[in-house]
Amino acid sequence: MGWWVWLVVVVVAVAALSGLVLWLQASRRSGTVIAVRRGGGRWGAR
Amino acid sequence: MSALMEAARLSGRPVVTLDGDAVAQVKDTVFDGPAGRVTGFTLSGRGLLAGPLRQSLPWTAVHALGPHAVMIRGREVLAEPAAVVARKEAARGRVLGARVLTDTGAEVGVVLDVVVESGISGRVAGFLVSARDAVVPGSRRRRRKVYLPRGETLAVSGRALVIPAAATRFTADDLAEFADQVAAYRLRDEKEVLP
Amino acid sequence: MLYSRTVGLPVVTLGEAAELGTVAGLEMDLARGRITGVRVSGRGRRTTVLPWEVLHALGADAVLVRSAAGGEIRKEAVPKVMGLRVLSEDGEERGTATDLAFDAEDGRLEKLLTDLGEIPAGSVRGFGDYAWVVAST
Questions:
Q1: SS3 label, residue A20
Q2: Do A30 and B27 touch (CB under 8 A)?
Q3: Which residues span the membrane (chain A) (predicted)?
Q4: Structure confidence at residue B143 (pLDDT)
Q5: B25 in contact with A at a CB cutoff of 8 Å?
Q6: Would you call B122 an interface residue with chain A, using a CB distance cutoff of 8 Å?
Q7: How is domain C85-134 classified at the CATH fold level?
Q8: Best mutation site among B5, B13, B37 for testing chain A: the one with the most A CBs within 10 Å?
Q9: Boundaries of CATH 2.30.30.240 in chain C?
Q10: Element (H or E) spanning B44, and its range?
Q11: Beta carbons of B116 and B125 less than 8 angstroms apart
Q12: What is the mean pLDDT of chain A?
């Protein structure tokens, strides 16, 4: 096998790793909606 | 009344100071179930490599919740994370996917989203629910998305929320219609409260 | 005078007619509603800020300055003024900034031009890395 095979392997591995890191950080940035209770409606009903 | 927006869509919305600098973006929207008010937001950094921030935005520091940005006076109004939601509460209170029950014990469906008012009120107007047709009149399909007024929501947890049965008579298919239904529901509420 | 027209103009000293560089951007103070200085490009990203007071004339083809003294060196890039989004105080998008008009005589800001129309300088609240912020309504 030529040396370029290893080059391709390294490039693919780096691309996959950075893709994974970006995806992981993007999912850590995304959020949801959270309900809490703060002393039973002290602002009134509405 | 100010425009309505879906809280899950707030995630990723930039937090911008009145000086025009983007200091963060919204991660979670936190609301007080019994009071029906947004109490604040947890934050993420902006940019490809950014993660969650060790800062939060309490509602009292919000200048305006807009369709394209959450405006704040300045960077200094950001607070520590626990000011908005404690870690335990955050794990317990995830409301998307929770069951919606009426106070008469019927199951309406599952919460898809929470509808909040834009501007400075921070009011929760209601919920987007994947509804069972047994409760919502006039639907053909077995399940469909409907907007339900919050009413005086009786209880909210990550598992279930309980709304007045009367609220299921004021459903809407889109946000524009929903604004009218919320107003109609409130009027009806006031009539019943008055002697 | 328009911000876009000033960018790229040669900056020339009045006494020796020496060319100091070209205009890279303008410095402004929104609270006072004025242009406070001219950023003159140097080598690389480095720019020199000349205060408004040393300007003799800001013309159609050149900026004449009394002296290059009092110039303050800035290393950070010139902020983007045109092409930046415009947000209302309510967090609603109001188009994109296309230019900024000011009085070349006294440096008073006149209006912000956007692709959706003009906004008087008095309604402009802030200008940062993300947006121009303007008063609602």
A1: helix
A2: yes
A3: 6-24
A4: 63
A5: yes
A6: no
A7: SH3 type barrels. (2.30.30)
A8: B37
A9: 3-74, 85-134
A10: strand B37-44
A11: yes
A12: 83
CA C106-C111-C113 angle, to 5 degrees, is 135
Cβ-based contacts of B70 with chain C (< 8 Å): 91
> Which residue of A lies nearest to B115 if distances are taken between CA atoms?
A33
> Would you call A33 and B39 a contact, using CB atoms and an 8 Å cutoff?
no
* CATH fit for domain C3-74, picks 3.40.50.300, 3.30.200.20, 3.40.640.10, 2.30.30.240: 2.30.30.240
Which residue, chain included where needed, has tokens 């639907």? B139
* CB within 8 Å of C128: residues ≥ 6 apart: B16, B17, B19, B20, B21, B22
CA distance C75 to chain B (A): 19
pTM of the entire predicted model: 0.87
Distance between CA atoms of B23 and B15, rounded to whole angstroms?
Answer: 6
Of A30, A33, A34, the CB nearest to B12: A30
Where do the domains of chain B lie, and which CATH numbers do they carry?
Answer: 4-92 (2.30.30.240), 99-193 (no CATH)
* Closest CB from A29, A30, A35 relative to B31: A35
Interface test with C, best of B2, B15, B21, B41 (most C CBs within 10 A): B21
Outline where DSSP puts E strands in C4-136. Answer: 10-13, 19-29, 34-41, 47-51, 55-58, 63-65, 72-74, 85-88, 93-102, 109-114, 117-120, 124-127, 131-134
Q: List residues bridging with B37 in a β-sheet.
A: B32, B123
| More confidently predicted of B65 and B145 | B65
Dmax (CA) of chain C: 51
Written as six digits, the tokens of B153 are: 């929501």
Between B142 and B22, residue with greater pLDDT: B22
CB contact under 8 A, B22 and C92: no
ipTM score here? 0.87
